[in-house]
Specification:
alpha/beta; Outer Surface Protein A, domain 3; 4-stranded mixed beta sheet; 20 helices; 20 strands; about 35% helix
């Protein structure tokens, strides 16, 4: 069972950046601040997902039934520990009613989870009904029931995306997590499904989700081995997610958990190499923006994250519906390992309601449960303990840590929390910035058209790349100073002499390198 949220499509915009490296002649600012994440490039194109375009997504554990008993199951305590877990399941009529209510409440998408969502005999009619109500339908599945016939039905029902969980690139590594024989069976189903998907020229996207575990990371080459496996099958979407220590994954943490640096190092080496060798495979990482920025800066890796993966929207744009119809702001709120102890400590009021018993969105959205959870998630005091986040360029705008969860235990009960992933990324990216001092930027294209605008601003057009953008403030100065012979260190010194009261040396270097890397990713500049 997986709880990762997968969007049904990548929302792209054309590369038309307005680079604003300064708010006036005497100020420097971070070039990648703001609500839009702009540091992931794909063939010179900007990937932007403004807040206004974020989907409202209902996560729905549509059934508690599952064919597997994975040793890292996040919902084991809730649904599988006993046959009486979480009460009964919704009937077909009740499930159809929940679909109608979610559509009426303004949701854009339902992401079906479980249990195993394909275990419901009425799952396809439910999916189809959601589509008739205008909702995008995406599914997380263990792949056991993803036969060719089932794939045909999912296509006919209008499902947008199917994400299949595989936790090892071969039987040995996968089956020790998901059970004997599962790898061979799931790969057979994937091959048959992809053949049908191609034959029907279907828009349905098929991908693979990999939960990183200690056994996988301790075997060199296993993380990168997913690329040739997916390439052989014809799957072009791969999502790596970090282990979340909840339920059975917490019980088995000694065998499954790992130092975050071990996972990040594997992704940097094996993951980046896979991206280079298999550029047609779209890679999504369950990571914080700072690590993704490091991969982009250091390796020009094409990685994708979504704001809702790093900035919690629980109880606002995201709801969780359980198998019996109870609704929560998120899955963590009802977790006996994190949410329930936090509620007992007074962080929020735990009073879930049933979707079958309400008719207006406000009855849930404005309930004391949802209001107090949102208040806790947005409270400044909830984040003061996260020392790593102080001064981070992405804190608040694109990223917030979960105030309930920490790999070291319930965050609400801790006086101080560090985000190990970001601590690792900070050290690595600062090393990268320092290493750029002798690098010499130069233009990689000819026939660049520049036109002076009001004040110091420059309008730039590169016909050969179909690019156009505006440079202001310090960005305009830097553009003029790129001559193919001046190293980064000299550019930083020149700016510092112009703005002696501006940012200190390391911050100024960071901003200059970020600016140049943005031009590099747009294929306008290269480094010698």
């Amino acid at each position: 069972m997986d709880t990762s949220l997968v969007n049904d499509q990548l929302m792209r915009s054309s590369f038309d950046p307005t680079l604003r490296p300064g708010k006036g002649s005497d100020q420097m600012e971070n070039y990648f601040s703001g609500e839009t994440i702009r540091f992931f490039q794909s063939r010179g194109r900007d990937i932007r997902i403004p807040e206004s375009r974020m989907r409202s997504v209902a996560l729905w554990d549509v059934t508690k039934k599952c064919d597997l008993r994975c040793i890292h199951c996040y919902n084991y305590d809730k649904y599988l520990a006993s046959s009486h877990s979480a009460g009964r399941e919704t009937t077909t009529e009740e499930a159809m009613g929940i679909v109608d209510k979610l559509a009426d409440f303004g949701f854009d998408q339902i992401h079906f989870l479980g249990g195993e969502p394909l275990n419901r005999d009425d799952c396809v009619p439910i999916f189809a009904h959601a589509r008739t109500r205008g909702l995008a339908v995406t599914i997380n599945t263990n792949g056991i029931r993803l036969s060719g016939d089932m794939l045909e039905q999912l296509i006919d029902a209008g499902v947008s995306q199917v994400a299949v969980s595989i936790d090892g690139p071969d039987p040995e590594s996968n089956d020790r997590i998901r059970g004997r024989g599962t790898f061979a069976r799931v790969i057979r189903n994937l091959e048959a499904s992809q053949t049908i998907n191609l034959r029907r020229n279907s828009p349905l996207q098929m991908g693979v989700i990999v939960t990183l575990t200690r056994p996988l990371l301790e075997q060199p080459g296993k993380v990168g081995a997913f690329f040739p496996l997916l390439d052989r099958i014809g799957i072009s979407w791969l999502n790596y997610i970090f282990l979340y220590r909840n339920s059975r994954a917490l019980t088995n943490a000694v065998a499954l958990a790992y130092p975050m640096g071990q996972a990040l190092s594997s992704l940097e080496t094996e993951g980046v190499e896979g991206m280079r060798r298999y550029p047609s495979i779209y890679v999504q990482l369950d990571c914080r923006p700072l690590f993704a920025k490091y991969l982009n800066r250091k390796h020009r890796a094409v990685t994708y994250i979504y704001p809702w993966a790093t900035k919690c929207s629980a109880g606002h744009r995201t709801w969780l519906v359980e198998a019996d119809g109870l609704v929560h702001p998120c899955g963590l709120c009802s977790s006996p390992d994190y949410g329930l102890p936090a509620a007992s400590a007074g962080c929020f009021v735990y009073e879930p309601q049933s979707m079958m018993g309400i008719h207006e969105k406000a009855a849930i959205y404005d309930s004391e449960y949802f209001r107090t959870v949102r208040s806790y998630l947005r409270s400044k005091t909830s984040y003061e303990k996260f020392t790593t986040c102080r001064g981070c360029e992405y804190f608040g705008g694109a990223c917030l840590p979960c105030p309930l969860y920490s790999p070291d235990g319930p965050a609400y009960a801790m006086e101080a929390c560090t985000v190990e992933e970001c601590e690792w990324s900070k050290r690595r990216i600062e090393e990268f910035y320092r290493e750029q001092d002798p690098a010499i930027p130069r233009f990689s294209v000819e026939n660049v058209e520049t036109r002076k605008k009001e004040g110091n601003a420059l309008s730039v057009r590169v016909p050969s790349l179909d690019l156009s953008f505006t440079l202001k403030g310090t960005g305009a100065f830097l553009w003029r100073w790129i001559d193919g012979s001046t190293p980064v260190s000299a550019l930083v010194d020149r700016l510092h002499s112009m703005y002696p009261s501006g940012p200190d040396g390391p911050k100024l270097r960071r901003d200059v390198v970020d600016f140049l890397c943005h031009l590099r990713d747009g294929r306008v500049v290269i480094f010698q």
